[in-house]
């Protein structure tokens, strides 16, 4: 498998080499990034209805209120769900248009079928929901089984919260990596959708560490831009220490920066997909049976060349 540093360097080189086209893709994704950045502060309150329902669900499942991880998780999930629903029209249009533009640029294809991306994106959403549901079911079973054996001390709750946070992070990180890989590979498939998602699951076998190493820098950058937006835009807006026009202009620039990192993330995922495909082809070529031919020179009066090989099966 290709070194993740080489993939990242090639991605950044391509990003800078085609910067004039990258800016076009970022401009297409700008409405989505602006909607996403604006939605997150408004859904950060713990008084939202989705948070209350998730909290009730966790309590009904038997999770104690002393499990701090599940309190934080229910809050973050409510924020993510609310923000995703709010930005769904922008995701299905501007974000997918931007990804289609970049994939067409990198692949050199004459056209990229938007509906394949759309089907794959919808399937990815259900896949991520299934990953979350599977993780919660696993935690529910583990918690109740351990409780039935008498593990109910405060130290147990702390240890269970930490281990649950670690396992949940691994599950969701792998789910996101598979979803991103499926999305960039969908234009090359025949129809997209669940078949592309299954293909991504097969491609990523044995390459999970590389995928996570590539996803970490871009996701940290996106998180940093989100924090910058909250500090520079939302904080100034609530404090009222600057003119609204200046805040709006700065917010637009930060949203554009967020869109640029989204484009870079698409480029990284595309080159990772190409690396996976190339590695699969190399493994197939290397795994083919070889026909060994033995050439023996016989020292006789008349020199002969004897070619010995496996007998034909037919």
UniProtKB/TrEMBL annotation:
Which parts of the chain span the membrane according to its record? 21-44, 56-73, 85-106, 126-146, 158-183, 212-233, 253-273
Q: Name the UniProt key words of this record, in alphabetical order.
A: Membrane, Transmembrane, Transmembrane helix
Top-rank taxon, per record: Eukaryota
Q: Which protein are we looking at?
A: Transmembrane protein
Q: Is Transmembrane given among the entry's keywords? A: yes
Q: Which organism is it from?
A: Eruca vesicaria subsp. sativa (Garden rocket)
């Amino acid at each position: 498998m290709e070194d993740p540093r080489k993939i990242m360097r090639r991605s950044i080189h391509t990003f800078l080499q085609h910067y004039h086209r990258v800016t076009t893709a970022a401009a297409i994704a700008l409405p989505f990034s602006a909607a996403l950045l604006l939605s997150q502060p408004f859904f950060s309150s713990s008084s939202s209805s989705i948070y209350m329902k998730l909290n009730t669900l966790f309590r009904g499942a038997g999770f104690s209120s002393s499990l701090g991880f599940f309190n934080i998780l229910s809050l973050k999930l409510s924020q993510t769900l609310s923000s995703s629903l709010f930005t769904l029209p922008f995701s299905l249009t501007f974000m997918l248009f931007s990804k289609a533009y970049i994939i067409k640029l990198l692949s050199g294809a004459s056209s990229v079928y938007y509906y394949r991306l759309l089907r794959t994106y919808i399937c990815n959403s259900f896949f991520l929901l299934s990953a979350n549901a599977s993780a919660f079911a696993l935690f529910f079973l583990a918690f109740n089984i351990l409780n039935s054996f008498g593990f109910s001390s405060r130290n147990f709750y702390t240890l269970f919260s930490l281990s649950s946070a670690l396992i949940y992070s691994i599950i969701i990180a792998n789910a996101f990596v598979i979803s991103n890989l499926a999305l960039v590979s969908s234009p090359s498939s025949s129809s997209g959708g669940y078949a592309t998602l299954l293909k991504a699951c097969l491609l990523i076998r044995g390459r999970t560490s590389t995928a996570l190493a590539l996803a970490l820098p871009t996701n940290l950058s996106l998180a940093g831009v989100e924090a910058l937006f909250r500090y520079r835009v939302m904080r100034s807006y609530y404090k009222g220490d600057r003119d609204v026009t200046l805040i709006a202009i700065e917010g637009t620039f930060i949203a554009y920066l967020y869109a640029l990192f989204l484009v870079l993330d698409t480029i990284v995922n595309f080159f990772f997909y190409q690396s996976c495909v190339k590695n699969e082809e190399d493994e197939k070529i290397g795994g083919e049976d070889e026909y060994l031919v033995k050439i023996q020179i016989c020292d006789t009066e008349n020199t002969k060349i004897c070619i010995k090989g496996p007998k034909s099966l037919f």
